Amino acid sequence: MLDRNAFLTWMAVLLATGCAHATPHTVTTLPSEPVTTLEGVETELGSVVKGRVALVSFWATWCVGCEKEVDALNRLSEKASARGDAVIVGVAVGEPRATVDAFVRRRGLRYTQLLDENFRVADALGQRDVPATLVVDRGGRIVYRGDALDGASLMAFRRTLGEP
């Protein structure tokens, strides 16, 4: 068993080396770090959202939980597109474009996809885990942060759209 000083030293080493999850810093707006489209065009997440309410899903091709969300996100995207004032955006983190593009085609993802290959946006947001869900209001402010797509994230999305 570690004594108090040994424990504190061990925790300091873990935090300094990135081996433990530190508390992420709070960001209230979308960062301006670049992301890439599947076509290879560099852009910003904020310019893709363009004043619409957005549900942003951070994901990876190897993430089983992320893959389970695909059908629900496809359905949600159809409803958002019909409204015109909302958008669903997937942000694939830490993977090359070819890998993500093949997954998108194979699984039939029909919502907007962006790449954060070097974790620039994820790091700016303090987002270390996938799946993760953000809801962004029309002003680009993050109004909800959560893990996998669930009832709470859907409620936040509807509430931000002004729905009951």
The largest pleated sheet is described as: 7 strands, mixed
How many discrete domains? 1
CATH class categorisation: Alpha Beta
Q: Residue ranges: pLDDT <50 for 5 or more in a row? A: 1-25
Q: Which architecture would the CATH scheme give at its second level?
A: 3-Layer(aba) Sandwich
Average residue pLDDT: 87
For the largest beta sheet, what order do the strands appear in spatially? Answer: 2-1-5-4-3-6-7
User: What is Rg?
Assistant: 17 Å
Number of DSSP-assigned strands:
7
CATH fold call: Glutaredoxin
Q: How would you describe the shape?
A: globular
The proportion of residues in beta strands is 15-25%
Order of helices and strands: HEEHEHEHEHEEH
Number of helices: 6
